[in-house]
Amino acid sequence: MTTIGYGDGVPNGIFSEVLVCAFVFAGIVLFALIILSKAVEQRESYKCGKMLIVLLLLILLGAVHQVTIGKMAIVDAFFCVCATITTLGCGKKSLFSRTRRSFAVYWILFSTISLALFFLYVAELRIERRLRALLKWVLAFKMTHEDLEAQA
């Protein structure tokens, strides 16, 4: 999930590829659910949910493309999508044909930007929640004469 991608620790087999994909995608979804469940403002929550749906559709689109055009196995396709979207890039899979590269130019751009926007909206939710808590505290604060005298 940190997108380091050293290259020497590449998943080597179906089980390890499934594990990496499950870890990355579950981390993204779990992170979203935790943040969305604590969402304060409906509009911000809606933006996060909408971007999560776009992101999931782009993941599915990329996997379907890899299976149909790239003739990859389903597990390999999802692993390639996972490594690409998270910019992990283990280097195990590459796009050789012109059709796959043409698709990848746009798909990588949209999917990576969508992932970044998703995390931006999640951060906005968190900031909004903290600002609301601060505002609530300020509005509930009872000023005394001593407080006013201390300001003078």
UniProtKB/TrEMBL annotation:
An individual GO BP term: stabilization of membrane potential
Sample GO molecular function, one term: potassium ion leak channel activity
Intracellular or extracellular location(s): Membrane
Gene3D superfamilies in UniProt: 1.10.287.70
Pfam family, one: Ion_trans_2
GO cellular component term of the entry, any: plasma membrane
Alphabetized SUPFAM superfamilies for the sequence: Voltage-gated potassium channels
UniProt xrefs under InterPro entries: 2pore_dom_K_chnl, K_chnl_dom
Domain Potassium channel, chain residue ranges per copy: 1-35, 54-124
Keywords for this protein: Ion channel, Ion transport, Membrane, Transmembrane, Transmembrane helix, Transport
Transmembrane region(s): 14-36, 48-67, 73-91, 103-123
Membrane topology recorded in Swiss-Prot or TrEMBL: Multi-pass membrane protein
Sequence similarity: Belongs to the two pore domain potassium channel (TC 1.A.1.7) family.
Protein name: Potassium channel domain-containing protein
Protein source organism: Citrus x changshan-huyou
